[in-house]
Each structure stands twice: as C-alpha cells, then as structure tokens.
Amino acid sequence: MHDDTRERRGVGLEVESLHKGWGGQAVLVDLSFGVGPGEFVAVVGRSGSGKSTLLHLLAGIDRPDAGRIILDGVDIATLDENARCALRRKHIGLVFQSGNLVPTLGVLDNLRLPLELNGVAAAESRRRAQAMLDALGLAALSAREVSALSGGEQQRVAIGRALVHEPALVLADEPTAALDADNAQGVLDLLQRACRERGASLVMATHAQEVMGRADRLLRLERGQLVDA
Asked: Which GO MF terms are attached to this record (predicted)?
C-alpha cells in the first residue's frame, strides 16, 4: 500500500536488462525496474527463484553478466571490486537474516563501524551512532555486548548499523525470518520508518505475508524473471 504523503524525488535505483547465470544456468533473465527514494519494494518468490542473487547484484557483491544497475548516477556493474566496495560502504546499507553484528564489538561500536570506515572522526561517529540508537528507541542497549542481546535486539541493532551512515539504498534479505511475530513487526516498523524519513530506497527479499502487505510494491520472481505480482 502506498504512502502518498512521502516526498517523491525521482528514481534512486534503476535496473536495466539485468542478466546473471551460474554454472551455465540462467538465474536472472532480463530484469528491469526502478525504486524511488523512500519507496519500499518487496521481492517475493519461491526459494531458488533468484531473490538473494538479485540482492547480491544490487549490493555490488557480485557482478551481472549483462545489464545496468544505476545508483546515485553510477552504474555499479561497470566498477571494479575496489570501487564497488567503496560505493557499498558509502551508499548501501545491508541487513541480513542473522544480523551479522561483529561479536567482538559492543552495540555502540557496531554502529560506529560503518561511520569510521567512511572516515568519520571518532567523536562524531560516537555521537551519530548514539543518536541513531536514540532515534530507534535502543538507547538502553548502547553499552551492551552483542552476546547479551536477544535475537530481536540484535536485528534491531543491525538495522541501525545499516542506516547510520544514511545510505541511498537499503537491502534486506529475509530480515524477519528468524523472529517471532512481535519482534518481526518491530523490525519492520523500525526499518520502514527510518527509510521513509531519510529517503532511502528499501528493497527486501521475503517470504513473509506481513512484509508483503506493508510494501509499496511487490516484485515477483519466477524462474529468474519478473512476473505480475
């Protein structure tokens, strides 16, 4: 369902004629779509339909065999590995099923990490990380060790880490799959609200009905191709 009150500022992500195969098998075939700033798009389809492959391509983790992925005016597909890594660090936030927090760092330092990798000074990274925790209602967790957090708390912190450097694109791979219903709704609330407020494009791979019902738009993959959702 659309939130027509959000500001529309053009297309934040454009995908044109995207192809990807593995081992001689076509995984994604001629995908084209756009995602606007603040828009929440859910990618749905059976296991093996290509959802995770698509997210990896959008993140610049893998390169397509053909096609264009344009983010902030840059075609990710044309960049070498170092340039893709730099673009991902600056412009993309990633949320995984397991959270993927760094276990040797505390909560606050996990949020500071992407900021410091982008050259933000220590005092400023601390301020911005704490402000993100405050904005997401997680201020009480700032001094905790990651190992002391529940699964739901870890996922909420992971969302904060994905958003703290204010990326243009947030990619989430089944972020609610391992959570109970209450924690899943809380994670969706945090992620969707923060992306809308900051104008980040949100693309989420999911099987969850509650996610599909909240997305602005569904992209359904079948045998590596987009079909009407």
From this structure: ATP binding
